[in-house]
Amino acid sequence: MPLFQPLYKSAMILLAVAALLLFDSFPAPAQKLVLLPMADLSKGENGVNLAFTKTVETTLKQLGVELVSSNKVMLFMAKNKIRSYHYLDDFLVKKIGTEFDSPLVLIGTIAELDTPEPSIGVTFTALDTADGNPVWATSAATSAREQVRILGIGQPETTADLARPLLKKALAPLAKLAHKSELSESRDFQLLGLQLSPGYVKGGQAVEGTLKIHFLGKRPTLIAVESAAGKSYLQYDRRTDSYQGEWFAPRKDGSYKVDLRLEWGRERTVKLIKAVASYEVINEPPGLSMEIKKAVKVGQRLAFRNHILILPRISNIRPMAGWSLEIKKDNGDSVVYEEYEGDMPERMVWEGRGSDGFMLANGVYDITLRVWDLAGNRSADTRRVALQASAPKVLARITHSGSKANLNLSVEGHYEFPLTSWQVKLQSPSGKLLVKGKGTELPAILEFSPPEGVSYALVTISGEDLLGNRLHIRRQKLPIIAVKKKIKVQKAKSWVPDF
Amino acid sequence: MIGWIKHCGVLLLLLGLLAGCAGHSKLQTRLVASADTNVCRIAVMPFENWTRNSELSLLVSRLFSAELVRSQQFNLVQEGNVGMFLLRHRLLPGALLYKDHYEALNSQLEVDAVVQGRVVDAGTESRYGGTPVPYLSLNIDLYDARTGQLLLNSVHQRWGDDYRKILHFGVVTTSSGLIKKMSQEIINDWFDKGVKCR
Q1: Are both A60 and A155 inside the same structural domain?
Q2: ipTM summary value
Q3: pLDDT tens-digit map of A308-325
């Protein structure tokens, strides 16, 4: 028995060593990798190449990598609305990991394929499902021209000939990548956005927040937003699958950042996400003033005949919501009203036309500019201008009494500014000058001797007003009207007997 | 002895000729004087595209990102996270980023630096009367997400036959191959200039 004791011990040790060796010689459990469909940029920005994905799948299987069924992957992508890699963020990568119990997600892009000769370019990135970060990447490219063989033996002729060795070489290191499957943290979330409405408010006004967020595991017990206004909890709305809440903005002007606070369970595990959104408090109205250019200053008044430039000046720059321009007659009737969203133009031109596009009558008009910012603060400025687009009309009339006649000149109609100078010439139909004159003020009377047997005369008047509007009446026919002498009937002072 | 010297002379002449064939690198990286070069985590924004090939910007940003991961010098933010960030902040690819955006990138994605690049020119060209080779011009800015300041700017231009070693060997005939090589050169240059994770 003592002889067998050491033998028994040695046998046990040998058995243990053999078992260890045997265990070591077993291949490590194969990696269960999720291969997403290959994006194909040769087919456009959103192109997908399922045939090439199959080739990659075959290559990976040859390299000993276990893959999750492509049907399951496609189903998952459809369910989670994954159409491209643009929005495949760490949340979705972790979700894939949890769903398929896989440590790695492989995404690939075909950079080029057969352009214009057999060629191929690919890039692969492996994402760790524990944190969603890229852990491995490779890119490879080749073409038939780059693979010239001696005497053309084994020369690749098609893209498939190029693809097989290229993929094997590129993906070989991935097969060696050892990652152990780790269950992702159940408190992961995907923040889609916190929308604040309105983004610009007056102090004390209500701000409404709508939070879109997805959770991988358990939803938090409470979700709150924190800003200078304090903490306010959001309510879950099942219909819109979002969290909503309202709070009042602080009184003081400024930009306020909003943090998000997620609270789980009784132990109050808190996750604070800083500066998710922001809103601005604006209490002061925009400092608006208006300057009128190209107008003539007449005393205290601004006047124009052709056009004016309206130059708005805003002293405190802030996001503008809209502005309006209104022009009113002095009796209060609105002749122009324009309203626009966004910023005000640097300058505006008014040619004295109404909203209908027709020229307005001479007169006094009030121009009002109004502006309002995104918080609803309003300010306005008004300027009064006089419009005189044409010179005052002159009425000419000839009166005749006896051997003398008078040419009467007077102004008719409404005008703001009189003629500053005028000239007149009266001629007989045969062209003989009857009278000529000039002056600065109207009305005026010019005396002349009318020729015999002529019933009319031709008058030519020219003149200019203060704003430069010119008057020109050429050879206007004027009848020579004889003025009947009024016979004064003398009243008898008293009854006197005829005899 | 004389024969040996002659052989050596011919060999040197050949080497000289071949060296002459090799293209010169046009890579220029300018580092800002006060740059904090300790960069660990990088986000690559979608590249701007100044060419007529609409997919090229996406291709360059994907290959550049892949090379950043492959370099094992930096920790990269996944493309989807950048996409979600742009979506949340209602930013279009190539949009100008303000200081607030960099702050948000720094706090939300924990990035140290942000790559903003543009594909200036690309195409295929037949140089020296040979077969057409691809060419590419890149302009890449690296911004410090902690301060919002520019860290460095790299300008790079290459033709596929710049990589010719001898005869047709080494010539890069694919656009993606050229992008890969240029990305590697740019990343290595950054590393040489001290941009690294310490």
Answers
A1: yes
A2: 0.85
A3: 999 999 887 778 899 999
